[in-house]
Amino acid sequence: MADSELRLEITALPSLPEVRPGDDLGEFIARAAPDDLADSHVIAVAHKVVSKAEGRVRVLEQVTPADRARSLAADQDKDPRHMQVILDETQEVLRAEGGVMICVTRNGLVCANAGVDASNAEAGEVILLPVDPDESARRLRARIAELRGVRPAVVVTDSFGRPWRTGQTDVAIGAAGLAPIDDWRGRPDALGRTLRGTAIAVADVVAAAADLARTKDSSQPAVLVRGLGRFVAPADGPGAAALRRAREQDLFR
Q: 59, 113, 137, 244: most buried by Cβ count inside 10 Å?
């Protein structure tokens, strides 16, 4: 297919039922997906519903904050119980300033507040990241394949801030069946020059694009992406873990 014929189509799936711990999220998505769902498609799913289905929810009244949580909460103007949950999910605190905590999560992500968030949660609850987002994506992909007979790629997304830029964009924290990176190093550009540093973060681009097809106050956490079949494979692949920069290459810590 010529470049001029490439087409990308991004559509939010119809609203899903309210997701609760133990719910079959894969079945919800399989039911909401259109009749023409295909192996070449990608389904991007906001991590909040994945986390809810997996029971990754903490009730704050059941949390007892320790001294460190109380001290950090006072400095960051946060609920000490919320702070304790953040610390429970944190491998390392990189920065705590101005109401923002930059943490390394236990599964190696670097993000604000270890991904612990009260948005789209019931009152008095906070939602955590999945324990293993890549495994979450693999399970969802397998369940959709079981129910629909096709095996689209699955990306689990979350909103991240970026150094040096304001605002947030969704990134891939989990993936299955999608090449997470399109590495152009050693390949020629349009003028024949050899590219030396270009590696496109395909899974992150999919996550960001999918977020434009829904609003933050909608009940449409799943988005169908058509037109990226060249990046979709039968095998689940390395997942979004391949997008994490090695610590020795990280210039910010």
A: 137
Summarised one tens digit per residue, pLDDT across range 201-238 is 999 999 999 999 987 777 899 999 999 999 999 999 99
Closest by CA position to 163, among listed 96, 198, 111, 108: 111
User: Measured between alpha carbons, how far is 25 from 16 in angstroms, rounded to an integer?
Assistant: 9
Please check whether residue 126 is in contact with residue 57, taking contact to mean a CB–CB distance below 8 angstroms: yes
Question: How do strand 42-46 and strand 153-162 relate by DSSP bridges?
Answer: parallel
Strand residues in 61-203 grouped as ranges (E)? 90-97, 100-105, 110-112, 125-127, 153-162, 165-176, 182-183, 199-200
Contacts of 246 (CB under 8 A, 6+ apart): none
- Please say whether the beta carbons of 119 and 113 come within 8 A: no
| 3-class DSSP state of 225 | strand
